[in-house]
């Protein structure tokens, strides 16, 4: 798990989603503990030994570094979603630009958006590193797998770390496509019947994948 967090930290850093020391990743270890990145470390330079173990009350169990200041956001997601095994928070530039412009990724522009993530809503403004971030997310967590954070960044979560990572990657891709489509003119959003057909196709795809 430590090696996996280090791998996906580096990937997100290389994709420009975690500049400076920003961004944090975590995985659920068992019913009592999660493994999470520390504060103040570049995700490119992160080492397996830097990671921190905390319990679900936020108490640090092991690790010599201090836990990320965004711990409360991770805890809120695990508390509200039993199915979630991993959480990724980052500052991808296009998705963050949408979050700074007060816009979620609500318009279904490309088929991929329907087939993968669905709507990515924008949560209300909250000061980073405070309990307000978790509070701003609570109403969205049960219904969505990725959320934009106003004037801040994005968070995604899933059944594994690769799953949460791929959702973050998709959030940024969808934001990039939406930005370019808007620059090219008036984007043509998918129609309701087209979305329904895609949802049927998605259901079939997921059944075959099992
Ligand atoms: Zn952040």
Order of neighbouring strands in the sheet with most strands? 4-3-2-1-5-8-7-6
CATH class: Alpha Beta
- Cα distance, first to last residue? 24 Å
Q: How does the overall form come out from the CA principal axes?
A: globular
Instruction: Give the number of domains.
Output: 1
Please give the CATH architecture.
3-Layer(aba) Sandwich
Percentage of helical residues? 40-55%
Fold and architecture overview:
One of its GO terms (cellular component) is cytosol. One of its GO terms (molecular function) is metal ion binding. Keywords: Lyase, Metal-binding. Residues 3-179 form the Class II aldolase/adducin N-terminal domain. This is Class II aldolase/adducin family protein. The protein is an alpha+beta fold. The chain has a single domain (2-209), classed as L-fuculose-1-phosphate Aldolase, CATH 3.40.225.10. The chain contains 7 helices and 8 strands; from the N terminus they run αββββαβααβαββαα. Strands 4-3-2-1-5-8-7-6 form an 8-stranded mixed β-sheet, with helices on both faces. Helix 1 (2-14) packs parallel to helix 6 (161-184). The longest helix has 24 residues, at 161-184. The radius of gyration is 17 Å and the shape is globular. It starts with a helix and ends with a helix. The model has no long low-confidence stretch (mean pLDDT 95). The structure holds zinc ion (ZN).
Short recap of the structure:
With 210 residues, this protein is an alpha+beta fold.
């Amino acid at each position: 798990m430590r090696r996996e967090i280090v791998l996906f930290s580096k990937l997100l850093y290389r994709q420009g989603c975690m500049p400076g020391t920003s961004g944090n990743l975590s995985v659920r270890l068992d019913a009592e503990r999660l493994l999470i990145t520390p504060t103040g470390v570049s995700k490119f330079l992160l080492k397996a030994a830097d990671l921190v173990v905390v319990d679900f009350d936020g108490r640090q169990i092991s690790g010599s570094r201090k836990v990320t200041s965004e711990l409360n956001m991770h805890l809120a997601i695990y508390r509200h979603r039993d199915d979630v095994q991993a959480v990724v928070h980052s500052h991808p530039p296009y998705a963050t630009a949408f979050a700074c412009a007060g816009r979620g990724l609500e318009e279904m522009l490309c088929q991929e958006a329907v087939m993968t993530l669905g709507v990515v809503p924008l949560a209300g403004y909250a000061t980073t590193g405070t309990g307000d971030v978790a509070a701003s997310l609570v109403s969205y967590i049960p219904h969505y797998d990725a959320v934009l954070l106003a004037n801040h960044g994005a968070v995604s979560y899933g059944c594994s770390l690769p799953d949460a990572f791929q959702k973050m990657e998709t959030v940024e891709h969808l934001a990039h496509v939406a930005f370019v489509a808007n620059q090219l003119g008036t984007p043509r959003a998918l129609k309701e019947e087209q979305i329904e057909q895609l949802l049927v196709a998605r259901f079939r795809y997921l059944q075959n994948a099992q």
